[in-house]
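Session log. Operator J.P. requested a structure for one protein chain; no other inputs attached. Running the standard single-chain path with C-alpha cell output.
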Amino acid sequence: AGGTGGSIPLTAAGSITTRALFTDAPTQAGSITVQGSSYQLIAGHNISAKGSSGTGGTVSITSTAGDITLSSLGNTTSNRIDVSGTVAGGLLKINSQANFTTYETSLNATGGSANGGIIQVTASTGTINLYQGTTCCATYWNANIDSSSTSAIGGSIQLQASTGIASVQDPNINNNNFSV
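Structure written below.
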C-alpha cells in the first residue's frame, strides 16, 4: 500500500537545535523545512525524508544570520540527512548565511530505478567545512555527499561558498599516527 509523508515546518527568529526529524513514506516522502537565525543538528540524530518504495522528499535548511552545523567534533555515529528514494532521489537544500559545517554527517539523495536527486549547499558569506574522521587502521567516519542512482542517471551536487570549501581531518578522530 502506498502512502505520502507529511510536512514538518520549523521556523524561528532565533536559533534552532533539533534531534531527529522524519517524514519518510512508502510512495512519496514528505518535506522538512527549517528556518532560523542558525541551526544545529545534535550528533547521533538523522533528518530523513526517504521514499521506501517511491521518491525521496524535500529537506530545506536555512540560516538567516549564522551558521548551520551538523553534529559536533568527534562524531562517530554515522548520522545523515537523507532524501533518497527507491525510485528517484529528492531535493536537499542547505543555505547558510555564514558557514556550513558537517562533522562526519553524510548528505544523501540517491535514486534507485530513476535518477539520483539534487543536493545544494550554499555558505553565502562563509566556508563549507566537511569534517572526516579516521582511526587506525580501517575505520572511517566521513561527510559523504551522494546523489547517485543504482539504475539510472546520477543526480546533481552543487557546493557554493564565499570563502572556500574544505575537507578537513577531525582532530578528535585522528589516530593515523600508528607505529609498530
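Operator note: The mean pLDDT is 92.
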